[in-house]
Amino acid sequence: MLTDVLTNVLRASIVDRVAVVTSDPTLLALTRQLGAFAVDEEYPRGLNGAVAVGTEFCLRQGATALLVLLADLPLVTSEDIEWLFRQTNGGPEVILVPCKEGDGTNAVLRVPPLIIPPCFGGPSLAAYQAEARRHEVTCRVVEVPGIAFDLDSVEDLERFAARKTETQTYRVLRELGVFHQATPKV
Fold it and tell me: Is-above-0.70 flag for pTM?
């Protein structure tokens, strides 16, 4: 899934730089191989800790806006990313993309990057909205189906398998035998 997400973010013409934060050496190597900055968090810090490490890295790179996108989104496209950045109003704000269940958050666009702290985990959509209110920051929720669909459960995997896609995730799952093909009747 990381390959699908990273490839599509790198294809988005509106994105200047891409960084992946992880302590996993295999994922760090894959990130470098695909052409993004690999930020070694040294040890697992949890999602909010990783976002904080990544935010500091991006600020040192001169970031004025920061999109945090989770890695379990095999259907995200470069067009989704470009559309999301075009939604910004030019001023300080937060744009949230909820997960398909509607209570979590799969993407957060913060302009500027430190306008509010990361709030991932549990019902994070409401937590982000509360944090934006607390800081008196414009906050909008937008629906982006390719970003909303994450693979978190067996049911998600079944939904994903029901429609063939040209994704690395789909190819790998097929190679692993996760999708059962119907046996032709003789």
Answer: yes
Asked whether the beta carbons of 77 and 67 are under 8 A apart, the reply is no
The tokens for 14 are 């509106």
Residues 6 or more apart whose CB falls under 8 angstroms from that of 153 comprise: none
Q: Reduced to 3 states, what is the DSSP secondary structure of residue 168?
A: helix
Map residue 174 onto helix, strand or coil: helix
**pLDDT tens-digit readout, 7-24:** 999 999 999 999 999 999
Strands (E), the chain: 19-22, 37-40, 66-69, 93-98, 105-111, 138-141
Digit-coded pLDDT (tens) for 56-114 = 999 999 999 999 999 999 999 999 999 999 999 989 999 999 999 999 999 999 999 99
Place of tokens 């929720």: 141
Among the listed residues 111, 107, 68, the one whose alpha carbon sits nearest the alpha carbon of residue 88: 111
Counting Cβ atoms within 10 Å, is residue 111 exposed (0-12), middle (13-18) or buried (19+)?
Answer: buried
Residue length of the chain = 186
- CA 168 to CA 159: how far, in whole Å? 16
The DSSP H or E segment spanning 165 is none
Question: How far apart (Å, rounded) are the C-alpha atoms in residues 111 and 94?
Answer: 6
Distance, CA of 140 to CA of 151 (rounded, Å): 24
**What phi, psi does 168 have (nearest 5°)?**
-65, -35
